[in-house]
Specification:
By secondary structure, this protein is an alpha/beta fold. It has one domain: Glycoside hydrolase/deacetylase (TIM Barrel, Alpha-Beta Barrel), CATH 3.20.20.370. It is about 40% helix and about 15% strand. The chain contains eight helices and ten strands. The strands form two sheets. A seven-stranded parallel β-barrel has the order 1-2-3-4-5-6-9. A two-stranded antiparallel ribbon has the order 7-8. The longest helix is centred in the middle third of the chain and has 21 residues, at about 85-105. The radius of gyration is 17 Å and the shape is globular. The mean pLDDT is about 95.
Length: about 260
Amino acid sequence: MKNISIDLNADLGESFGAWKMGADEQMLEIVTSANVACGFHAGDPLVMNRTVQLCINNAVRIGAHPGFDDLSGFGRRRILNPDSEHLSASMIYQIGALAAIAASCGAQVSHVKFHGALANMASEERELAHCLVSAVKAYDPQLAIVAMAATELQSQTEKIGLPLLREVYADRAYNDDGTLVSRGQPGAVIHDPVMASDRVLQMIETQCVESINGVKVKVVPDTVCVHGDSDGAVLMARELRRCLEANGVQVAAYTTR
């Protein structure tokens, strides 16, 4: 596959206080962009600062990874009917916190990827997606949105006019509508690095994701997510990058900003 470039992203900076999550140092030697937790679902000021420094040292793009205010649930619990004004303000608050830390290190935030339950809900619900993308635009209309490909979040990003990075997942199974299978369902998370890498190659080559029921959903991937908090994340990311490059796909950071 010639003349194809893809970004690899991971959700990082998700340690908190004395609680350690993930192998950020190793992941940042492999991925080309990072989504850094902003303190609401995980992360804290010190972890944010250290993660930004690691991103700079590894020439990795820095993104904000805001989520629901849900430390105890790691942002993976759905908060139904959230107040739009409060949610919008909380997005700006989280992005701004990371942006301030990045600026103090001589860097900048280039993209936003919503976390966990918030991202999943925004992929399904038009009004929520509109609220989130509008909040990012109000903060900085040059920030790119990492949106699950072929979902409401992609549609609203395009409608509002922010830079878009269409995302596919190496290690997650898909529903027939292009959303992710709930983590509580059998087969939702893929643990085999070779299987995950083969799936991503197929997505890039066919420009489709295949659901658990065999339904093919049209996508044009810009970035591939490997979850940084899963068991074997480093092995998964390393095998994925090796596989992509071995098949002629250039692994490189996105260039929207």
